[in-house]
Amino acid sequence: MKILSIVDTAYRATLEEQDDTILWLNHALRNNGAEVSILLSGNAVNYAVRGQDAAGLAFGDRRVAHPPRLDEDLARLIAAKVAVFAVEEDIRERALPADSLVAGIEKLSRAGIPEAIERFDQVWRW
Amino acid sequence: MARFVFVESRDPYECADCARFLDLVGGVRRRSHEVTLFLVQNAVLAAREGASHAGGYSDLARAGVAVVADAFALRERAVDRLASGIEPSGIDRLVSLALTPQTRVIWH
Amino acid sequence: MTIGKNLTVAIMDPPYESATTATALRIIDAALRQAQVVTVFAYEGAVSMTMKAQQPHANPVKGTTVEQEEHPTTKDWIAGLFALARQTGAKLDWINCGLCVDERGAGETIDGPRRGSPKDFFEAVKLSDGVIVIPTH
User: Which residues on B lie below 8 Å from A117 (Cβ)?
Assistant: First the structure.
C-alpha cells in the first residue's frame, strides 16, 4: 500500500512538541513498515529551509531543552528512504532560497499533483 | 479509472487555499476519474444560490464532479436554496463512498 | 449493514474547539450502522474527547441550571457510540495515541477506548476497506 501524506500546516505546536507531529507520525509509520511519501505544500514547504533556529526559549526558569529541528527531521526521513516532495509554486511564492533547501527534496508542480496522487493507494491530508 | 472523494470542510471566504483545493478536484476529474466533492461544515456557506464563490462548485458539477452538500450542515446554516449542480445528502453517503473499494478520501 | 466492511477514521481536533468534532462523531455514528468494524485513531488533541473528568455545566447567560442545560460532553457522545456498536453488532475500536495522552494528562477515560500508537493505526489501515483522515488546522 503506497501512502502519500500531504502536510500543509506549519509550525503548529512544534515548540511544545519539539517536533512537527505529522512528520513524526509519518516517520513512525515508516518505522512500522508503511510505504509512505510526503508532499510538503503551503507553508509547510518552509520546513525544507536549512538553518531554522528555535533555540533559546524559556518560560520563567523552564528552558525548552530540545527545540525542533524540522529541516533535520526531513533529512532523516529522506535518509530513511521516504520520498519527500514539495510544491514548486509554494517554494517560489515564499522565495525560499534554492541553495538553502534540504538535499533530496523533489519539487512537484501544482499541475502535476493530480497525476502524482494516482500512484498512491491512500492520500491523507494532515 | 479510480475513485476519489474530496471532502471540503473550509470555506473560500476564510481560507486562502480553498481555490487550490478545487483546482485539484478539477484536475483529478480531467484525468477521467470518478470524483465526488463532499461539502461539510462551513464549506456549505459557498453553496448557497447566489453566493459569490458558488461558481467554483457549480463549475465542477458541470465538469462531471458529483458535488454533494451535507444536509445537516445546510440546515444548521439555513441554506435553503443551492447553487446549480449541488445536491444535498446525509453524512451516511460519505461513509458509503469511503467504503467503496479503491476509493481515496482526501479531506481539506 | 454492509457485511464485513472495515473503516478507519483518524481525528486530531480537541473537543470544544472546532466544527470537526461533531462531524467526525457523525461519521463514526453513520459508519457503525454500515460497517462491521470501525477503528478510530485519536491523535493529538482528539485524545481529550474521551476524558472521564469532563463535566457538564450550567449556563449563566441563558439562566439554566446544570440539569436544565444538559450540556453535552464528548465523552458521553462517545459512550453513546459504544452503545450503538453493541446494538448494531459492529466493533468500535477507539485508540487514543498514547504519547498524546501522556502529554495532555488525558489518561483517565471512559470505558471503551484503549491506548495505542501509530503502529495500531497502520495495522487498522491495512485491514480497512476505507480510511478517512480528518486533518486539523
Answer: 28, 104, 106
CATH code of the domain made up of B3-107: 3.40.1260.10
**CA of A117 to nearest chain B CA: how many angstroms apart?**
9
C-alpha cell at B95: 461513509
Where along chain B do its domains lie? 3-107
Count of the separate structural domains present in chain C: 1
CA distances from C22 to A114, B48, B73 (A): 30, 22, 11
Specify whether the CB–CB gap between B5 and B105 falls below 8 A.
yes
The CATH code for residues A2-125 is 3.40.1260.10
A59-69: pLDDT as tens digits: 999 999 999 99
**Which positions in chain A touch C44 (Cβ < 8 Å)?**
13, 21
Total-model pTM: 0.96
Residue type, B4: F
ipTM surpasses cut 0.95:
yes
What distance in Å separates the CA atoms of residue A65 and residue A67, rounded to the nearest whole number?
6
Q: Which residues pair with C3 in a beta bridge?
A: none
How many angstroms separate the first and last alpha carbons of chain B? 22
For B42-92, write each residue's pLDDT tens digit: 999 999 999 999 999 999 999 999 999 999 999 999 999 999 999 999 999
